[in-house]
Amino acid sequence: MPMYDYECPTCGDFTEMRPMAESSLPQPCPWCETPSRRVIRMAPAFSTLSAATRTAHSTNERSADRPKLLSEVGPVHKHGPGCGCGGGGGKKERSVLRTADGAKGFPTARPWMISH
């Protein structure tokens, strides 16, 4: 059920949880019982969402159009090439076979390709 803002002429603003069908009807003030009209101070909030979900929605809404930083889209591996941790920093050496006449052959290459 959404929560709406209302304005009491004597006591000020207050927020009440109401069904959507009754949102435009006057709401009695919780302190003085004066019928108060609805005001739109911010978008209605749904109280059935958990706090974590509401936080995630507001964060996503704020950052929907923000460009990504290079640190967010860059490579995850921060070490230099050849660091030895297995993070893919350096180029792997290809195994090379040499024939008697000195020609190179690559056993991991595609056999149907002609090398030069």
UniProtKB/TrEMBL annotation:
Coiled coil: none annotated. The keyword Ribosomal protein does not apply. Residues 51-116 are annotated as: Disordered. Residues 59-69 have a biased composition (Basic and acidic residues). Keywords: Plasmid. The keyword Protein biosynthesis does not apply. InterPro entries: Regulatory_FmdB_Zinc_ribbon. Pfam families: Zn_ribbon_8. Residues 1-41 form the Putative regulatory protein FmdB zinc ribbon domain. NCBIfam families: CxxC_CxxC_SSSS. This is Zinc ribbon domain-containing protein. It comes from Azospirillum oryzae. The lineage of its organism: Bacteria, Pseudomonadati, Pseudomonadota, Alphaproteobacteria, Rhodospirillales.
